[in-house]
Amino acid sequence: MYLITIEGGDGSGKGLAATVVSEVLAKERGFNSVELTAEPRRRHPLGRAAINAVREKRHPPQHEARLFALDRLDHGLNWILPRLQDGSVVVCDRNIHSSMVYQGVVGGIGIRNVATLNAGALVPDLCIWVDCDPEIAIRRIKSGSLREASPGKAEYFETLEIQRMIRSGYSEVLSGNSLTDTPFNDVEIIGPILNDASADEFTSRVTNELRRFLRSRPKPKNVDINDVDLTSIKRIIGWNSGQAKLPGFENRSKSTNQIIPWHTIRDAERKHSGSMGEGADESVPRSIHSRSIYSVMGATSLLSAADLNEILSAMGPTRLISRRHANRVIAHLSGSRYWMRESSGARGEGSHYRVTREGMALGTLMLVLWPVRSHIRLWRSRNPRTSYKHAMSGIMKMGISEGELHTLVERIRSILPTSNMSSGLNYEEFLLTWWNSQTSIVS
User: How far is CA 371 from CA 83, 235, 365, 402, in A?
Assistant: First the structure.
């Protein structure tokens, strides 16, 4: 889902930063996986060609930049992008900004020319800029561990003069003042983060800045967030279908719940409002259309029964909320017993939560409505006494985009395959008919 790049001069501590970032991301249960990679690719022919061109010094910087761009384009489209689409985070040691510094500034061909050569490359969602005093960097480059990891560095980077040029280049490229009208202008930059003192201080700074980025829930730059979410949902649905075929589960019966979407949302709002009594936890949202309630109910509907960790994982990277807040929302919802109920697990396992039949219908519906949740919430705040029967037509009049309508229709057909309405209807007609008709929820 996110491409996070680590940039900085040689010996600055990019490797340590990449390790810290990977460990923090691994604790965020919503991502499908955390993948660590680097550029140029030392074991790929395109990456090797770029490395050899720099070492041999037989080609001008413009040619070197083209080779790095080719390696980056192939790496991005064929290796990184499929992982982003699958809901993973990719951490890349060096990316586009390295070319801007090494060939654009130090090599003298210009930052804009490098950006043009890389116009088809993926755009980092976040760049972590690691900085270091050049003299300290030189000592690290000469250390056995670093040279062993990157043999041959002494051939072309092991001079104080070049290290100073590289540091100055990063300051120019990542300061935000050197680029105009390129796809790489909007990359969020963290740094410079100094790495010339305590490793603990450096680790703490990287960790805090990364968590701040994750809390802001930025829209990914290279993939559609709703496509990523739907992929995550389909993966869990497919896993559950496979589980049903395991020995001992062949005769597992499934019941079908018939609902009318707007009726379900109306009833849920009434029950949630009734549950928010005088002693209710103030941190639990009052609106049924809050992000956290949609996240919790959607995840539990996918799992039927699960503990807190499993619920957090089922939220996926786009619907993930904090563990602390999820725990409070789950406690309230299970306490009301309308949509989920708590049951004690085996000794030492903690609590498990089982979705009710009514909760399955509501959670599945919230999974479908996730892309337009904020529109429905806004409509409701403006029309607190209007029947939910008019909610779908209401959000259409508020200016919902064609893309959002398409996404909503796609989610209905993927998550509720029993909703077989005429394919001849346009998006608006399809959604209005679905909103007011009986829909089957399989539980």
Answer: 22, 18, 12, 12
